Amino acid sequence: MSRIDSLQELDVRRQRLSQRKENALRTITLCGGTGCIALGLPQVYTAFEHEIQQRSIGDKIRLKRTGCHGFCEQGPVVVVLPERFFYPGVQVDDVPAIIEQTALQGKVIDDLCYTDPVSGCKVAYEHDVPFYNLQERLVFRHNGELDPTDLDDYIVRDGYRALAKALCEMSPEEVIEQVKLSELRGRGGAGFPTGLKWELCRQSPGDDKYLICNADEGDPGAFMDRSLLEGSPHAIIEGILVAAYAIGARKGIIYVRAEYPLAVRNVNITLQQAREAGLLGANILGSQFSFDISVHEGAGAFVCGEETALVASLEGMRGMPRPRPPFPTQSGYKGKPTNINNVETFANIPLIILNGQQWYRAIGTKGNRGTKIFALAGKVRNTGLVEVPMGTTLRQIIFDIGGGIPGDHEFKAAQMGGPSGGCVPAQYLDLPIDYDSLKEIGAIMGSGGLIVMDEATCMVDVARFFTDFVQEESCGKCTPCRVGTRRMLEILTAITRGEGRLADIDRLEQLGEMIKQTSLCGLGQTAPNPVLSTIRYFRPEYEAHIHDDKCPAGVCQELITYRIDPEVCTGCHLCVRNCPQNAIAGEPKQPHEIITDRCVKCGICHDVCKFGAVVIE
Amino acid sequence: MAETIAAQQAAAQAPSEADIEALLDELNVSSESNLISVLQDVQARFGYLPAPALEEISRRTKIRLSRVYGVVSFYAQFYTEPHGRHMIRCCRGTACYVRGGQRVIDAVKAELGVEEEQTTQDMMFTLQTVACLGACALGPLMVVDSTYHGNMDPRKALRVLQMYQEDSG
After folding, report:
1. Which ipTM was obtained for this model?
2. Could you say which of A172, A490, B39, B169 has the lowest number of CB atoms within 10 Å?
3. Of A361, A387, A403, which marks where a domain is finished?
4. Residue A258 above 90 pLDDT?
5. Which of B136, B143, B155 should we substitute to test contact with A (largest number of A Cβ atoms within 10 Å)?
6. Nearest Cβ partner of B93 from A220, A296, A578?
7. What's the pLDDT tens digit per position in A158-216?
8. Within a domain: residue A399?
9. CB pairs under 8 A between A and B
10. Angle A228-A266-B25 from CA coordinates, rounded to 5°
11. Cβ contact (<8 Å) for B138 and A451?
12. For residue A382, is it within any domain?
């Protein structure tokens, strides 16, 4: 790959690439994200390759493995260009028909089309699928289109033009000014103004400055950073380069979770490409600006998402936070000024620089500009990654884009912001959500995890689940977090076992407030949120556990029993065959019965029964 | 009997002193090295962090052994014991949890007779739970080695285990 040594050379290269006549009749794109891979994409890809080779149509039909399309529920996802025919859940057997009818003849195959769960209609084109057409995909704009490991594929889509513009036409101060005016806030969780952070780091004395991309996406239920790194790594690198130029950093580090092997692989490939093309290393784009990036794989600790813990971890130590100030922008990695931003934040930067801050400010609400990516999961039909402008309501995200709750179930709450966040009840479905509105109702934006819960989710159990998580992930340095979360967990566990006492709810609230006020870092200061928000909105559910020894949602094992309704049971024997404990007795065609002493409440009988005869009480 | 087999297999997996020395030479481990990176590289080679290797790392990096162990025990990624032939990682993330992930984990534990972070006596499986694997749409999720098994329920999970048992048996 030849070096690109100036803005002009980049322009020439882009023009040459865009004029390159597309010989192929159609391009078949396959989603190469972790979700689709898990659902069998590699086999489907091989089948396409094989079919194309056998028919010798490689000159007509191009095959392309792109980044994550975001509609993980429907994987493996195949989109045929240029028409954008959309086929979800493609299997190996479907491949010949897709080649023959769609790729060669341009016809849509009805049987393979997506059926909208809300309207029940078949949808042929990607842009007509409600999951996509109600989103505003800016940060994700290239994810489903380009081959993440092909530099030219990015350059032809205006790739690295923002960097070129910054280097050739703007001073570092001007870049910072643009980002400040854009009102971009850090997408990692706290929502700190990005431009201000850059300015603080630029103003810190010293020539040795570091830039860190925080890709330690430890928040359970959030996976947008993984998807961006897998699908648009060049855009992240471009964002990092612009930031480095603005603050005057010489060296960058991408701190990425080891649990994301595909992201690590794609980032390493793209770094190498950028280096060879002169977009990384010495004299970038022929300018005086030199900067390089290395990759550091995290070793698995949630607290390392906290800036000072992350720095400690990078230095090879236990990832324990320290009191601030000094902030990392003053004294961070190796004691030098260090700027740390999240992956999604960096992904926004090329957009702001290229289109200008005014364009960016037109999206979102006051003080909350731009879009936010949510990881929509849990009890919702269309799980996946959703990018919407700030200020979109939960109802739009969960019901319009997400297709609502599967089955006949009712929406109960949305857990937002992961272990630092809270549960948002149905009364706030129409609240425009942004950093500030969520904080007011006891949740947080966090990194954008959005887990939908229906009436079969026990809120006390959810609070216990998150407290268990933070208790385990607490680094142990400060007492309020180390001991406090443990005490909270003990109380919550007792309640879910039917051993709770009336004073427990008050005690949880007191403890929670104390932990929030006295913990050292963000982990502890937000750890009680899931408990406090569930008490705030679902107090009667706590009381039912304590007063009546009942779990209204039918989740807490000690408080429920499984029973077979003899009126409904047909004696089909299915539950008898599947019970791992041999705890179900009964002759075929006669109503069965659960032997309570042997039952371990695994729930398998409830799952397999086709008649709804197994009831939870 | 089973324990003796397990002990023998563990001993057979343990790298010799020469292996350790050679690897640390190759990695150029010194007081300048980043401890976490060294530990990651050593674990990548041996599959776990044998005690003699940690002692040697401590000597070469001039980091006290207690601190080396402090780092090893802090991060979820590091193991001080060898794994079974197959690594089972069950996700206990929120999305998996609300869809019944805990029941899957309970079923796997009951079937294998192990707790989290333990290895079966025949050294076939090691069970781990992970905070989140980032494939929430597929929850509940179970990853065996590097293969993702999505939308698990207790029954399906047991069938997946059986598949691996039969393959090896």
Report:
1. 0.87
2. B169
3. A361
4. no
5. B136
6. A220
7. 999 999 999 999 999 999 999 999 999 999 888 999 999 999 999 999 989 999 999 99
8. yes
9. 143
10. 130
11. no
12. yes
